[in-house]
Specification:
CATH architecture: 3-Layer(aba) Sandwich
Number of strands: 7
Strand content: 15-25%
Number of helices: 10
Structural class: alpha/beta
Oligomer: single chain
Largest sheet: 7 strands, mixed
Shape: globular
Radius of gyration: 18 Å
CATH topology: Rossmann fold
Order of helices and strands: HHEHEHEHEHEHHEHHE
Strand order of the largest sheet: 3-2-1-4-5-7-6
């Protein structure tokens, strides 16, 4: 099993509880996605790498598209957490499956908007996969790649920060990838404020809520959490800014 798929199979059952304690964060993020893509009710939308649909379900509530949002994820255990809704259509597939044509779009209709939230770093062949996804767009199609910068302010332990910087692509490079695929690219930045009790956050670390935490053995993670406890021993509530790059691509007018 692919390492990323294995990681999310393991965390799927508890994934939603990490963020549902803060509905304002999720709601604000979904509003930002709809605004960045200028979504309308007539758009055919796909959320590729949707996970449990935590943000997708709120995106549907915001936009009320006439067609269900296509919820694509390679981890069936994550898709199993999707609420039963006529507005969400699950599809068990990888981005690479859609890009290569191994899996066809339902109804064989092009997409007007694709959301790729915190999934671009999981693609082995980013340019090739993205080029394939662009071919699925309509004449007024848009893509939004949402990603963390290379350096983040999450209250992680030192080794996790170092490993994250090693693995995370640079948003500027991703914008170049979007341009290379023939789209007009732009980069904007959004900040979301996070407030969370220290003990809840420790539980999130133990549950490996970020994929980078899957890079550590049980002993390494235990040691990292011990370092975290020491560093934040005087902070019962953690407050930090969650910075994101919104890399947008649009099909140029013909």
């Amino acid at each position: 099993m692919d390492r990323t798929v294995e990681h999310y199979e393991r965390v799927a059952a508890t994934y939603n509880e990490h963020w549902t304690y803060n509905p304002d964060y999720v709601r604000g993020f979904s509003h930002a996605i709809a605004d960045a893509l200028r979504l309308t009710g007539s758009d055919a939308i796909a959320d590729i790498g949707c996970g449990t649909g935590l943000y997708t379900r709120r995106l549907y509530e915001d936009v009320q598209p006439t067609r269900p949002i296509l919820c694509v994820d390679p981890v069936q255990a994550m898709l199993d957490q999707l609420p039963a809704s006529p507005g969400l259509r699950p599809l068990h597939a990888q981005a690479e499956d859609l890009a290569s044509g191994r899996v066809a779009l339902p109804d064989d209709r092009p997409l007007d908007a694709i959301v790729l939230k915190e999934s671009i770093h999981h693609m082995a062949d980013r340019q090739g996969t993205f080029d394939g996804l662009v071919r699925l767009l309509s004449g007024h199609g848009r893509v939004l790649i949402i990603m963390l910068p290379k350096s983040i302010q999450h209250p992680l332990f030192a080794a996790a920060h170092e490993r994250f910087q090693q693995l995370q692509p640079d948003p500027a490079e991703v914008a170049d990838m979007v341009s290379a695929a023939g789209l007009r690219s732009s980069v904007s930045h959004r900040t979301f404020h996070a407030t969370i009790e220290r003990e809840r956050y420790i539980h999130m670390l133990e549950s490996r809520y970020m994929s980078v935490l899957g890079e550590f053995s049980e002993d390494e993670l235990r040691e990292g959490i011990a370092q975290f406890r020491h560093s934040y021993r005087d902070d019962p509530v953690l407050r930090f800014d969650d910075h994101f790059a919104f890399v947008k691509g649009s099909v140029p007018p013909r």
